[in-house]
């Protein structure tokens, strides 16, 4: 049995309160991992193309004030 299968089996056996706490923790954990990945991608320059596209659109007059 894989770790994922074992975890699934244990999750199915949780009561409602425990499942709710696990779900909330997983959401927070997932968001923290996403934030770290986004920061790493930003720091490595992987997202620079987004900045460059936005600046090019602004220089071309394709943007408007908010």
Detailed description of the structure:
This protein starts with a helix and ends in a 7-residue tail after the last helix. The protein has helices spanning 3-12, 16-44, 48-59. The model has no long low-confidence stretch (mean pLDDT 97). It is elongated. By secondary structure, it is mostly helical. It has one domain. Helix content is 77%, strand content 0%.
Described by the principal axes of the CA atoms, the overall outline is elongated
Rg from alpha-carbon coordinates: 21 Å
**What order do the helices and strands follow?**
HHH
Uncertain spans: none
Structural class: mainly alpha
Query: Helix tally?
Result: 3
Strand content: under 5%
Largest sheet: none
Question: What is the share of helical residues?
Answer: over 70%
Count of distinct structural domains: 1
Average pLDDT metric? 97
SSE layout:
Blueprint lengths: L2 H10 L3 H29 L3 H12 L7
Outline of the structure:
The protein has helices spanning 3-12, 16-44, 48-59. The chain is mainly α and 66 residues long. It has one domain (3-59).
Characteristic terms for this protein:
mainly alpha
């Amino acid at each position: 049995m894989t770790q994922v299968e074992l975890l699934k089996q244990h999750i199915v056996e949780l009561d409602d309160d425990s499942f709710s706490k696990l779900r909330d923790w997983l959401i927070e954990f997932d968001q923290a991992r996403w934030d770290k990945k986004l920061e790493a991608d930003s720091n490595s320059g992987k997202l620079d193309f987004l900045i460059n596209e936005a600046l090019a659109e602004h220089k071309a007059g394709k943007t408007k004030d908010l």
